[in-house]
Write a structure and sequence with these properties.
heterodimer, A: alpha+beta, Transferase(Phosphotransferase), domain 1, 3-stranded antiparallel beta sheet, 12 helices, about 25% helix, B: mainly alpha, phosphoprotein (chain A), nucleotide-binding (chain A), transferase (chain A), kinase (chain A), ATP-binding (chain A)
Chain lengths: ~475, ~300
């Protein structure tokens, strides 16, 4: 795959001719559908990577009048700058110049934790092996540590966003996906509901539920704790009923579920609790209600003295400042005891491998989102889509390529604008995303994690050199 | 908005230690969470990382090489910047948003030279740079129809097309570092405990003014930031005094120190013009864009400049 994200507009003017970029793929069908658009499974035709599976995420057109969607810009920007074995890899960005839609091509992952958990719970009725749980968790933390070291908070970790590679070189490798809500710490943040985004609340940290406006990386660690517990029990740990209202409704039931298991948070253990808006406002419900501490150990069936329980309870620490970080978690005793975590989480040295089902493919939907035979059905339940789309809310998509009107401009000759359009859609105008060589822009001194997979372009401030030498590389 | 949320070091040192009125809004927001999420060493670490990214982005390019452009193209660039600044003011966007727009603009035209484009296309692209910067930095999405150019009327699809061209030309690397990233760090380093009142607004004003003088792809943001903070603190420093101030900050080599001083000199001149030229006597479209006092929105940066001679 080379520089193919810009295609020549001339080839896309007719309905029956595929744009050039699309001709390099064999489209197999739709594998997911969500708030942000559709996800397709495709295979590469070119000889170099023939047959390689690619997940192609089509961004929905943003609301007319807003231009390129900020979500798309942020997600692509982040994905362009990150490179880690445990983070999903963006291999190409395609612009369909006819309708200006964006398609992101990712390495395809056959499985995700949502489907794996569901398979164990509903199909085989058997827990996930200790080795597999530990390997999933270690790799998830390893990817997250990389993101956090780069000041990126994911904000929407949940089982369906944690992908697992199927057969091949990378079998059983975990990939964190869906950066649609991810932010660099310093970027302006607004509450998730302000974005008009529906995010499941089951993995949401208590400080956010209580109305904190500032996110820290600790919100991701809370979600990891919830996912860890779910891997152990095959059930969501805190399954609250969501209040659907805008803006930013108070999710009392979710907090209630948490308090029932972990007990009431106290100012003694969590001093900044007093400053959180909902804690102050909703005295009657939150502070007034008394909870018996059911005990996390009884819910997850772990002995209190076990390293697994210790790690889990540190991830589910109420006070975000005391909550364990990804870097600290990777050093936890849990990962040093047998069975040791491995790269192929699916195939344990001792256990028999579980055959997980492959993702269902809806072969009736084309790249435009139009169905050829029948109305499309969501291909999988819940939000289990590989292309990392939260929620399962479909939406209308443009139904076919069409000629872009060129009118509406005053004091400008139509042919002049046409020239601009042609320029804009010339092949090779920038953004060749050479898939193998996306340089790590922020080659950060890593906080010392083994198996760091970052391919750095240079080593001026490499991992060994912290604190970095004062003279920066020139 | 406005300047109140421009510095974005992980720990907003300035905000905690000196409740400058500029930062009131942010301070109130900080209250609910603990502001001490980041330690001093994490700040240093953050700055090191920024510098590293900066080095990667600027590569081996000499810091003070100046991109040569004809005066007519400079005029076009200045017109675009004027439009960006005025639109920022009228929409009440952050200064950072405007600065970032100019960064995108300069990065774009460093890859596709200005001379290759017709004026209307340059104006359209500058509008796209601004709308993209707003999408990156503003917390609410502004409809494209809010961005109006006087001379041309572009529809949404044309703007979106231009946005896509900018995005792909910049290879979607929209997280450009700006001097604002370093502002609170340097203010803290150079001032210690005694921060003059209104310092951050003066520094921001210099950041904005300097965009009209230089091509932002020629100067590293950290150097612009250091020079601007020094000028805002004291615009009468000798070369030795500048060196003395920057020597404890072990971030640069001797070459960069040299660049800081030349940047300092340039900003001294800007500072003189800003102080000398009251806004009212300058016609709105004066030939030299720098002569006009920036259209700062005082209500969002309530600290008045203290009069300096």
């Amino acid at each position: 795959m080379g520089d193919t994200n810009s295609n020549n507009g001339n080839n896309t003017n007719t309905n029956n001719k595929k744009p050039e970029w699309l001709q390099q793929y064999d489209l197999l069908g739709k594998i997911g559908e969500g708030t942000y658009g559709l996800v397709f499974l495709a295979r590469i035709k070119s000889s170099t990577n023939r047959g390689k599976s690619i997940a192609i995420k089509k961004f929905k057109q943003s609301k007319d009048g807003d231009g390129v969607s900020p979500t798309a810009i942020r997600e692509i920007m982040l994905l362009r700058e990150i490179s880690h074995e445990n983070v999903v890899k963006l291999v190409n960005v395609h612009i369909n110049h006819v309708d200006m839609s964006l398609y992101l091509a990712f390495d395809y992952a056959e499985h995700d934790l949502y489907e794996i958990i569901r398979h164990h719970r509903d199909k085989v009725n058997q827990s996930i092996s200790q080795y597999t749980v530990k390997s999933f968790l270690w790799q998830l933390l390893n990817g997250l540590n990389y993101l956090h070291s780069n000041w990126i908070i994911h904000r929407d970790l949940k089982p369906s966003n944690i992908l697992v590679m199927g057969e091949g070189d990378e079998q059983g490798v975990v990939k964190i996906a869906d950066f649609g809500l991810a932010r660099i710490y310093q970027a302006p943040l607004k509450s998730l509901s302000d974005n008009g985004v529906v995010v499941t609340i089951w993995y949401r940290a208590p400080e956010l539920l209580l109305g904190a406006k500032h996110y820290t990386s600790a919100v991701d660690m809370w979600a990891v704790g919830c996912i860890f517990a779910e891997l152990l029990t095959l059930k969501p740990l805190f399954q609250g009923a969501e209040v659907k209202a805008t803006p930013n409704p108070f999710q009392l039931d979710q907090l209630d579920k948490i308090f029932k298991v972990l007990g009431h948070p106290t100012l003694e253990k969590w001093p900044t609790l007093a400053n959180l808006p909902h804690w102050q406002q909703d005295v009657q419900h939150i502070q007034g209600h008394k909870y018996d501490n059911t005990g996390l150990n009884t819910v997850v069936h772990l002995p209190i003295k076990s390293p697994a329980y210790d790690l889990l309870s540190r991830m589910l620490e109420y006070d975000p400042r005391k909550r364990i970080s990804a870097a600290q978690a990777l050093e936890h005793e849990y990962f040093r005891n047998d069975p040791l975590p491995g790269r192929n989480a699916l195939v344990s040295p001792n256990d028999k491998a579980v055959n997980y089902p492959t993702r269902p493919v809806d072969r009736t939907t084309d790249f435009e989102g139009t169905t050829s035979l029948q109305p499309s059905q969501p291909v999988s339940s819940g939000n289990a889509v590989s292309g990392n789309i939260p929620g399962a809310h479909g939406g209308t998509l443009r139904s076919g390529p069409r000629q872009m009107p060129v009118g509406g401009m005053q004091r400008m000759q139509p042919q002049a604008m046409q020239a601009f359009n042609n320029l804009a859609s010339q092949p090779g105008m920038g953004s060749g995303m050479n898939p193998g060589g996306i340089p790590m822009q922020r080659g950060l001194p890593n906080q010392g994690h083994q198996q760091q997979q970052v391919r750095r372009k240079d080593t001026g401030m490499g991992m060994s050199g912290y604190p970095p030498q004062q003279k920066s590389r020139r | 908005m406005g300047i109140s949320d421009t510095p974005f070091s992980p720990r907003n040192l300035l905000c905690q230690e000196n409740p400058d009125a500029c930062f009131k809004e942010q301070q109130q927001e900080e209250k609910e969470d603990d502001p001490c999420l980041f330690s001093e060493s994490e700040d240093e670490y953050y700055i090191q990382c920024l510098l590293h990214r900066e080095t990667t982005a600027f590569g081996s390019k000499s810091c003070c090489a100046s991109t040569t452009t004809s005066s007519s193209l400079k005029r076009v660039r200045l017109d675009c910047i004027e439009w960006i600044f005025n639109t920022r003011a009228s929409l009440d966007f952050r200064f950072l948003t405007a600065y970032l727009s100019v960064t995108y603009f300069d990065r774009f035209f460093s890859k596709k030279p200005l001379g290759d484009w017709m004026i209307w296309a340059i104006r359209l692209l500058s509008l796209a740079c601004f709308s993209l910067a707003a999408k990156m930095e503003q917390s609410t999405v502004t409809p494209l129809s809010a961005y109006k150019l006087q001379e041309y009327d572009f529809d949404n699809q044309q703007i979106q097309r231009a946005e896509l061209l900018v995005l792909s030309t910049l290879e979607w690397k929209m997280g450009s570092i700006t001097p604002f990233s370093y502002m609170s760090y340097f203010i803290n380093k150079f001032c210690g405990e005694s921060k003059p009142e209104g310092l951050c607004s003066r520094v921001a004003e210099l950041f904005m003014a300097v965009t009209k003088e230089i091509n932002l792809t020629d100067h590293r943001p950290s150097i612009i930031a250091a020079a601007a903070v020094l000028v805002a603190i004291d615009s009468q420093l000798t070369k030795e005094a500048v060196e003395l101030r920057i020597s404890p900050i072990a971030l640069w080599g001797s070459q960069e120190n040299e660049h800081i001083f030349s940047c300092y000199n340039m900003m001294q001149d800007i500072e003189k013009r800003i102080v000398k030229t009251p806004a009212s006597v300058v016609p709105p479209h004066s030939a030299a864009g720098t002569r006009r006092r920036l259209n700062f929105n005082e209500q969002h940066c309530p600290v008045k400049r203290i009069h300096r001679s």
